[in-house]
Amino acid sequence: MDPDEFLARADGLLRIPSTADRPAELARALEFVLDVVGPGCTVERFESRGKPSALVYRGSARQPFRVVFNAHLDVVPGAPEQFTPRREGSRLYARGAQDMKLSALVLASVFRDVRTPFPMALQLVTDEEVGGRDGTLHQLEQGVTGRFVVIGEHSALRLVTESKGLVAARIDAVGRAAHGAYPWLGENALVKLLRAVDALLVAYPEARSEVWRTTVNVARIETSNTALNQIPADASAWLDIRFPPEDPAFDGRGTAEIAAHLSSVCSLPVTVSHVEPPHRADPASVDVVALRAAARAQGFSGDLLRKHGAADARFYYRQGVDAVIFGIGGDGQHGPDEYADLDTVEPYYRALSAYLRSLPNA
């Protein structure tokens, strides 16, 4: 990989404000990376609800792929100056530098440069930051499949083999309005709701340090009551729940089952709007072992990590396909000082290339 050529391309890609509200810029970022791959490949294009994506592979017919490289090219919004990259030593500052445009460029470069004796694909999507359902999930629903997936989210050449699932839920309390001076004539829905939330937080205590268990974030509490001297007749609480694959109350359960479970804990009606599955990859698999060895050969630990947030790996997990997060280093994800660690870029390229070459002809 030519470092100067790579940095020039990185500068060009980082200047594209490919946020969810700019469909033309999403398409431009996608075309930019396809140009990096160059000619000689089949490019399948997909679109769902205005979000474009592509699948690139060699040969004329799609098939189950031995390896899939997955990259998202969308970014969260940032200040205008964040779309003008600046370099300070080994740090390249810009929106999307760490998450994950530089990793995407490396994945595309390795796909272009390493010819494998087995079927392989590069999957490029533009909606990961808003859920991934119109990119990775949409392609899977169209029949795309593989045996092992490398997702280039930032990890400093470590491997994320587990990540939590997500539940979005709402607790509703109904009371009876009355004058605030005569509380015995009414029933305070807000008090009922607070007791329900307390019960839920007893079952799932607030985490004060990093812990691998189910956590509940009470994101919002509302009531339609606006008068100080009136007893609220209604109240609702919105919950953001994250759960590991080991929690049987959530993993593999549908919205109705999870709603019933939460209702039994808090003794009020619960509505679950959606459930996102967790993710786990076998740490002893041939691919995980090979990828760790390749990272270690470049002087990195290749440690296995757990991720508390969701990523597109969850869609593969649901289909029984192992996927890991493996990307460059950096810091400041989604913040004003996001940067990529340029010292990890070439080792990342070499590790991915070595990993592919180490695999048997399967």
What can you tell me about this protein's structure?
The structure is a single chain. The strands form four sheets. The protein has a six-stranded mixed beta sheet with strand order 1-2-6-3-7-15. The chain is 30% helix and 27% strand. It is elongated, with a radius of gyration of 23 Å. It is of the alpha+beta class and 362 residues long.
Task: Write the topology of this structure.
Layout (H helix, E strand, L loop, with lengths): L2 H12 L8 H15 L4 E7 L2 E7 L7 E8 L13 E3 L2 E3 L3 H17 L6 E6 L10 H6 L4 E6 L7 E5 L1 E10 L14 H15 L11 E8 L11 E10 L11 H12 L3 E7 L2 E2 L5 H12 L6 E4 L5 H6 L3 E4 L3 E3 L7 E3 L3 H14 L4
Parallel strand pairs: 3-6, 3-7, 7-15, 8-14
Antiparallel strand pairs: 1-2, 2-6, 4-5, 5-17, 8-13, 9-11, 9-12, 10-11, 16-17
Overall morphology:
elongated
CATH A-level architecture of the largest domain: 3-Layer(aba) Sandwich
CATH class of the largest domain: Alpha Beta
Q: Helix amount, in percent?
A: 25-40%
Number of domains: 2
Fraction in beta strands:
25-35%
Poorly predicted segments: none
Mean pLDDT: 96
From the N-terminal CA to the C-terminal CA, the straight-line distance is: 27 Å
The number of helical elements comes to: 9
The total strand number stands at 17
H/E series:
HHEEEEEHEHEEEHEEHEEHEHEEEH
Radius of gyration: 23 Å
From the helix content, strand content and strand pairing, which structural class follows? alpha+beta
Q: Describe the biggest sheet? A: 6 strands, mixed
Strand order of the largest sheet: 1-2-6-3-7-15
